[in-house]
Amino acid sequence: MYIANEARIIKESSHGYDLIPIQDEMLSRREVELVGEVNADSVNALIRQLRYLQSKDPESPITLYINSPGGSVDSGMALYDVKQAVSCPVRTVCVGLAASMAALLFVSGKRREMLPHSRLMIHDPLIVQTGGSALKLKAISDDLMETRQIIARVIADHSGKSMEEVLAKTATDSYFRAEEAVEFGLADRIVTSLD
Question: 94 pairs with which residues across the strands?
């Protein structure tokens, strides 16, 4: 018997009742989640979970639920690399919004599913710092353009679209409803059950 209690659940066993974090129960079912900002803390926690699940069973799939506005490109690319490197197939499920870096993480799933009212948003990377000398601004601009190409290549590789098609979409904030995401190759299917 399970009784929800905020972020913990009461689990009944032959030894009595235990109060455990719901994330532990999800982890036992090989489910992890990216909720909120993509940053060093959220990504490092997910990397540890993916590596742990691979060590327990290197072949069984892992489900990554995503509801995130995006965030750090460097942190997101670290999670992308680990997600691609683990031997377990990682299924991604968009349960609200997967925007910016979170969209890239969603799109790169082995099996990509969206709930009916979820959305994706892709765009070019943003400048997070400004000011300084002309040389400093040029270096920032050059790095940003290189990052733009890397992100577009990842999206193109996982969507089946050309670099030109992806760059045209990422030039502005491009939102996709679930049906549109499937049509553009960013998702595989729309699901109404999370089984």
Answer: 66, 114
| In contact, 72 and 100? CB cutoff 8 Å | no
The two three-digit tokens of residue 180, written as one number: 């549109």
3-state SS class at 27: helix
Catalytic, 100? Answer yes
For the chain, the residue count is 195
DSSP 2-49: EEEETTEEEEEETTEEEEEEHHHHHHHTTEEEEES-B-HHHHHHHHHH
CA distance 51 to 47: 6
Per-residue pLDDT of the chain (195 residues; tens, 9 = 90+): 334 445 666 767 677 777 777 888 889 899 999 999 999 999 999 999 999 999 999 999 999 999 999 999 999 999 999 999 999 999 999 999 999 999 999 999 999 999 999 999 999 998 766 777 888 888 888 999 999 999 999 999 999 999 999 999 999 999 999 999 999 999 999 999 887
Is-catalytic flag, 15? no
How far is CA 37 from each of CA 70, 100, 153, 185, rounded to the nearest angstrom? 6, 10, 23, 24
3-state secondary structure of 162: coil
Catalytic residue among 42, 100, 108, 159: 100
Neighbours of 138 (CB within 10 A): 11
Supply the pTM of this predicted model: 0.88
Catalytic residue among 42, 72, 123, 159: 123
